Model the fold of this input.
Amino acid sequence: MILLAIDTASSLCAACVFDAAAGRELGRAVEDIGKGHAERLMDVIAEALAAAGKIHADLGAVAVSIGPGSFTGIRVGVAAARGLALGLRVPAHGITTLSAIAEEARDTFPGCRIVASIDAKRDEIYVEDHAADGSITHGPSIVPVDQASALLDGERPVLAGSGAAVIAAGADPARYELAGGAATADIAVYARLAAAGRTFNSPPKPLYLRGPDARPQDGFALPRRAT
Done:
């Protein structure tokens, strides 16, 4: 089966075409754009397909990062994945950004407990705690920064993701290992997880662990007209 993976949950706009049967990447396109995923995603997907020598009709499934991460980016990616899957009549699957970060860290630290985290700003971090066998023991959840040090309790963890430095701040380095600080994983990791059936939801839905920053301003609300 040929699978398309999409990731727009961070500053990256990424797509990967993956041969699930052979377990190998066929082609990719990745741009670090910050914002503007809606304008670039379809072109990035087309570039990945071209690099793989495939067309949309060759796809047997679509996978997408569902967050946590950028609210707008997540919406764009999930909408695109669901739309493509509907048009092609293939399944679509969601994978959490945190699971992908943990899986990427496991390539370097096999058989270890891994705490994957993303800096959520506003003195909070998004967290997913994975046991040495890969099972999720906690999360995905949002944790206040002043409680983050508790994640170092128990088996010595490998800290991965953009929240790793927040968890490690002020702690004895003997209590943890560090595995990088990116806000997402390589796009091929999402494809690999989907090919192995290790998904979070199908069809994909955005994973929002807190409300949006932008909210309606009550002072500008118009009164409801009586009928």
Q: What stands out?
A: The helical segments are 37-52, 71-88, 97-108, 164-168, 187-195. Residues 214-222 have pLDDT under 50 and may be disordered. Strands lie at 2-7, 12-19, 24-32, 59-65, 92-95, 114-121, 124-130, 136-144, 158-160, 177-178. The first strand starts at residue 2 and ends at 7.
